[in-house]
Description:
Elements: H1 4-14, E1 17-20, E2 30-33, H2 38-57, E3 66-72, E4 75-82, H3 85-96, E5 103-106, E6 109-110, H4 116-135, E7 144-149, E8 152-159, H5 161-172, E9 179-186
Parallel strand pairs: 4-5, 4-6, 8-9
Antiparallel strand pairs: 1-2, 3-4, 7-8
Amino acid sequence: MNKLIPLLLSLLLSGCVFVAGAAAGAAGVAVVYDHRKFESILQDQQIANDISSRIASASALKSNAQISVTCFNQVVLLTGEVLSVPQRQQAGRIANSTQDVKKVYNQITVRGPTSSLTHASDTWITAKIKTQMLATKDLASGTIKVVTENGCVYLMGIVSKEQADMAVDIARRVSGVQKVVKIFTYH
């Protein structure tokens, strides 16, 4: 059981699970997983952890770099800020050379770090989008990962074209969204 707690926390922090319980009160908490196999979720988490560790240990990326790594279905999304093009390229090389990675989207911007207020706004935007997706009938929101960076929303997952269109429409309607980028695998 003790080994399960860090795993669940890791999945929760990575966005692989959604905890719902505020409406239910203290009586219970429901955990809704995405619809992939548990092994796939773990593999994505391992890939993200490997890339994050390698980036954190790279001397050129240790200072003045804020990089987030998201992985869904072995597709990696790099977001955040660095101070130079070589730093951005190095982060991309690290991700591309990581075992089991199918594709890398390097969306790291070259500029100074964003403020805490911007990060809070991004978190709020993501929460609003996920909440609206959960409330939308016929949308399999558990198959969609939402990442927001500086007002830009990235949507990842394995979906049909119709599901993708629904998710994009929801994201576009949320206040504060500057742009929506689809990183979907279609089935």
